[in-house]
Amino acid sequence: MFDVAIKNGLCFVNGEFVQANIGIEGNLIAYVGRDDICGDLEIDAREKIVIPGLFNAHTHLAMTIFRGYAEDLPLKDWLEKKIWRVEKLLEPEDVYWGSLLGILEMLKTGTTAFSDLYIHMDEVAKAVGESGIRAVLSYGMADRGSKEKADLELKIGTEFIKNWDNAFNGRIRAIFGPHAPYTCTPEFLKRVKDAAIELNTYVHIHVAETKWEVEHVKSVYGKTPVRLLDEIGFLDERTVIAHAIWLDDNEMRILKERNVSVVHCPISNLKLASGIARVKDLHDLGINVCLGTDGASSNNTYNLFEEIKMTSLLQKVITGRADALKAKEVLKMATENGYRAYGIKGGKLERGYLADIVLIDRRRHNYCPMYDPLHSLVYASYGCEVTHVIVDGELLVEDGIVLTLDEDKIMDKVESLKEKFEES
């Protein structure tokens, strides 16, 4: 008898879809196979596709509040003329409600874990605790050349880790989140890396997102962002970099040699006209590539199924090869690779892995006819097909309804916050 039994589902196991049953004990998968099983809670998955939970590996969660606020702008103008200005108005309670809205959207579209880099992170952690989702959280730090600011930022980031790491039965992993090489000095980044080593934790940072960034960093320090970070000893297997668009071949080899993970955020990159990352080349080098949405102000959703399809399509176009990234490879980026990037044993339907699992209704018009469930999932999903979501062994979404959150209350609250920012 298992705590939870998922019965007769079409399950993604070892890279293939097979009919199987899944037994969960506590927060772990305890059985995957064809034997008949029973559970205290039984889920009939006869008409379901069952996959590991999706991992959104780069977000700024509370930016749901700014969804649609700053449109049709390149990244530099988007940040300097719009976003950084209104972010100064954000209060902790705003971040709490914006985070709940982001979590609501992610759970309803099959995301079981996410990595967030933002401000007022105590409020994000509270939202994670209440919702039941899994998260890697980091306070977004930037010293901008000020020693006083560097000391304060590092203090806030360190205290956040000490207060929240391993909270809620280990569902929160707290790490460091320096913003980028153009907002953080090399001296500050060295201090952050030393602190991460001391606390045995990870670092998440934006790198080479725009051509402007690369040219700016090179003009100031005489090196591109990746070369600069490598020179100061910042890059290793516990470094996760977001975007990595403007890289040359040698920089890719550096990332491979240092075992750095890369988060690809295709839709945000397209919307801000930042560029298209060479994901096939990164993948072919053996670099661990995972997927993220970025913030809801530059995307504008937290629906990872959109990123899955876009990742595959973009690489087909820029390489001129329809088989550049195959469906199986992209699905792995959205699941197992995200968990791996942050050292979490999840993202696979396998005994001993975390019970973060998503069930998808395969009786949908967009999946009909279904020749291959893998191709239907990657190329024909909207996200609304998700029916059940289990995180850490707990059922959070049932028949499309989030059991842990009050959807109407959250939406009404965030809608009411809009007035403050409209007037700014």
Brief rundown of the structure:
This protein has 16 helices and 17 strands. The protein is α/β, with parallel strands linked by helices and 424 residues long.
What is the strand and helix layout of this fold?
Blueprint: E1 2-13, E2 16-25, E3 28-33, E4 39-44, E5 48-52, E6 54-59, H1 75-87, H2 92-108, E7 111-118, H3 121-131, E8 134-141, H4 147-164, H5 167-170, E9 172-178, H6 186-199, E10 203-207, H7 211-221, H8 225-231, E11 239-243, H9 249-257, E12 261-264, H10 266-271, H11 279-284, E13 289-291, H12 304-319, H13 327-334, H14 336-341, E14 357-361, H15 373-380, E15 386-391, E16 394-398, E17 401-402, H16 407-422
Parallel strand pairs: 1-4, 1-5, 6-7, 7-8, 8-9, 10-11, 11-12, 12-13
Antiparallel strand pairs: 1-2, 2-3, 5-14, 14-15, 15-16, 16-17
Helix pairs in contact: 2-3, 2-16, 4-6, 12-13, 13-15
Binding site for Zn(2+): 58, 60, 206, 294
Catalytic activity: S-methyl-5'-thioadenosine + H2O + H(+) = S-methyl-5'-thioinosine + NH4(+); S-adenosyl-L-homocysteine + H2O + H(+) = S-inosyl-L-homocysteine + NH4(+)
Domain Amidohydrolase-related: 49-395
